[in-house]
Structure formats: C-alpha cells, structure tokens
Amino acid sequence: MGYRGRLRTPPVLLADPVVRVLRFAVRLPFLLWHLLVHLPLTLLLLTPPFADIRLAGGDRLDHRMVRWWSGGLLRVFGMRVRRTGEPMPGAVLFVANHVSWIDIVALHSQRMMGFVAKREIAGWPVVGWVVARGETIFHQRGSQESLGGVLHEMLARLREGRAVGVFPEGRTRDGRAVGPFHARIFLAAVEAGAPVQPVALRYGEGGSAQPVVAFAPGESFFGNFLRLLGEPARPAEVAFLEPVVPGDAEGRRRIAEIARERIVAAMRT
Questions:
Q1: How far apart are CA 227 and CA 183, in angstroms?
Q2: Where are the domains of the chain?
Q3: Does residue 42 contact residue 69 with C-beta atoms inside 8 Å?
Q4: Where are the beta strands (DSSP E) in 72-223?
C-alpha cells in the first residue's frame, strides 16, 4: 500500500515540467517562422504603397495585416480568441484592464488602434519593434511633460477619425483585480467628443488564468514571454462592451468610473 502511494507522486510532479518542455519544443519553430517569415511580410505591407490599399468593405490592408499577425502570435502561444461584442468603427477610445504585454496583441487581433504604452516597451525584443510600427504612442512614466504630449497626440488622432487604445490602470497587476482608472487619460475623448468603449480581457476559462498570464513579481518581459510559450492552450476572451458617450456622462472622472464598472462587471460573468 505504502509502495503504491510513493509511485503516485513522482509522475504528477514530473508531468508539468516535461509537458512544458514538449510544448516549448513544438511552439518554438512556429514562433521562429512567425517572426522570420510572417513578420517581414507584415512590415512590408505596412509601408507605402501597400499600406493605403483598401480591401473589400473598406478595410485598410495594413490594418488587416496587423490583425492577422497578432492573431497568429496568439495561436503560437496556444491562445484562441473568443470575442463578444463588436469594436466600434472610426474615432474611438478603447480602454481595457491590463494583465500583461499580450493584452496589446489580443486587442490588435481584433481592431487596429494606436496604443498608449510605457516607453520601456520600445526596447523589448520583437514586441517593442512591432508596436512601434503599429501607431503606438509612447509615454515616459512620471513625466507630466510626456503625459501632456500623449494627450495632445491622442486628441489629434481622435479628431482625425482614428482609434486609440489605453490601459487606464497605468500598469499591469497580478491579474486578480482591476485597479483604479486614472481619469486624466479620458480627457482626450471628452475634448474630441469621441465615444469610450470599455474592453474586458480575460485569459483561461472565466478568467482562471489571469494570475498565470500576469507578470510574476520581479519577472522580466523576456521571462514572461518564455514562460507563456510553455503554458497550456487556453482561451483569450476579448469582450467589447457598451460604449460610454461623453455627452451621456458628466466629465472624465464619471466616464472613467462607468468604464471601469462595466469591465469589472464583465469580468465577473
């Protein structure tokens, strides 16, 4: 009896590391192909004269390529997108909860938008290079001058009819809760009269993998990137929620509150 008990434990302890190595071995060639073959093709089609080509339905070729490449990267990591709701067209401020770097990829797989992101991302391998060419607006944390420039650029893009994406929490967390939203980032939408569409991002069934996808304490981007490459296949849920129209809510603080409330409610369903 005791002998059989000792035999039950080692397979359980060994299974996960072995399976992770196998997943890594299978996915790494697909990742390299996606970076060395698909990425150069995508970047080529992001440049003139290809970028301005209009496809059936009026979609721009460069926007379609960003969505295609982002969706492919998610599949390499074993993530299958489940979308609910529809992203609004035109000038929209998309606001989402922030879990990890892969949030940008998940949103870009559904809708082209210029993200507001911390300046450090520009130096990240692969992702930094790609997002810099994806209309990203970089912000230096803690700099009021930088924030002023970001808000000015956001306002200009919204007035041009373009979409902007932000993470109003300002930083990633442990994935277990949605932090407070910084109201100032909503000022551009108020001044442009653009709708704000909240987006709830969940990983795993019902958000069960939020803490897994989130950065571990002290974990670098590269460490998180490699760790997620060995994770089990799971859904990535992207829920586009009811938009908030500036005229329907009084001021940026109330818009921030409503947007957060809708995301938190969606995370609980």
A1: 33
A2: 79-268
A3: yes
A4: 79-84, 93-96, 114-118, 137-139, 164-166, 196-203
**Residue 160 dihedral angles phi and psi, to the nearest 5°:** -85, 0
Q: How far apart are CA 266 and CA 15, in angstroms?
A: 34
Residue 83 φ then ψ, to 5°: -105, 140
Q: DSSP secondary-structure letter at 244?
A: B
Closest CA to 103 of 38, 166, 40: 166
Q: How many CB atoms lie within 10 A of CB 95?
A: 28
Cis peptide leading into 211, omega within 30 of 0?
no
Homologous superfamily in CATH for domain 79-268: Glycerol-3-phosphate (1)-acyltransferase (3.40.1130.10)
Q: How many CB atoms lie within 10 A of CB 229?
A: 18
C-alpha closest to that of 120 among 139, 102, 103: 139
Which one-letter amino acid corresponds to residue 237? Answer: E
Spatial contact of 150 and 116, defined as CB atoms under 8 Å apart: yes
Please tell me the distance from the alpha carbon of residue 96 to that of residue 94, in angstroms, as a whole number: 7
The pTM score is: 0.86
Please write the tens of the pLDDT for every residue from 132-189.
666 787 766 655 666 777 888 899 999 999 999 999 998 888 888 999 999 999 999 9
Separation between Cα atoms, residue 5 and residue 203, nearest integer Å? 35
Token look-up 């909240």 returns 198
pLDDT for 108 beyond 60: yes
The Cα–Cα gap between 203 and 221 comes to 18
pLDDT digits (tens, 9 = 90+) for 69-83: 999 999 999 999 999
* HSE, side-chain direction, 13 A CA sphere, residue 183: 11
Task: Judge whether 79 and 212 are in contact, CB under 8 Å.
Answer: no
Give the pLDDT confidence score for residue 2 in this predicted structure.
38
